[in-house]
Amino acid sequence: MASMGERRLEGAVLKKVMAENKRPSMYQVLLLNDDYTPMDFVVSILQQFFGKGAEEAVRIMLKVHYKGQAACGVYTREIAETKVMQVMDSARNNKHPLKCVMRKE
Ligand code: TYC
User: Fold this and answer.
1) Is the pLDDT reported for residue 87 higher than 70?
2) How remote is the CA of residue 105 from the centroid of ligand 1, in Å?
3) How far out from the chain centre does Cα 38 lie?
4) Distance of CA 99 to the CA centre of its chain
């Protein structure tokens, strides 16, 4: 028979293992196309906030331009929310209509 202490310990160990096995949901951050935001502004956003090099930034910007949207990165919820806010703040401050959204993977 398991003692009260043994069952408490078993419960605590199980709880810890379950917490460790949980992986956070991931979110794609997407840029959306519009007709007015300058291409070089979008490229600089991708470099500044998403750590892209010049070539990769141009590639992603052109994908948005021709296909309507493209993913700039995949992050946990709080990081993705911060990226969206940084992009939207910068777009607003520079009077561009650029939109940035997040989508759960
Ligand atoms: N379509 C814009 C233009 O022709 C460029 C652009 C690219 C705008 C990507 C937004 O997320 C965007 N100037």
Assistant:
1) yes
2) 24
3) 23
4) 14
Task: Report the mean per-residue pLDDT for the chain.
Answer: 95
Measured by CA distance, the residue closest to atom 5 of ligand 1 is 39
HEC readout, the chain: CCCHHHHHHHHHHHHHHHHHHCCCCEEEEEEECCCCCCHHHHHHHHHHHHCCCHHHHHHHHHHHHHHCEEEEEEEEHHHHHHHHHHHHHHHHHCCCCCEEEEEEC
pTM of the model: 0.84
| Cα 65 to ligand 1 centre (Å) | 5
Q: If you average pLDDT over residues 38-43, what whole number do you get?
A: 98
Spatial distance between the Cα atoms of 76 and 6, rounded to a whole number of angstroms: 37
Q: At what angle do helices 39-50 and 77-93 cross, to 10 degrees?
A: 140
Cα of 13 vs centre of ligand 1, distance in Å, is: 52
Q: How many C-beta atoms lie closer than 10 Å to residue 98's C-beta? A: 21
Please name the residue that has the structure tokens 């605590």.
Answer: 12
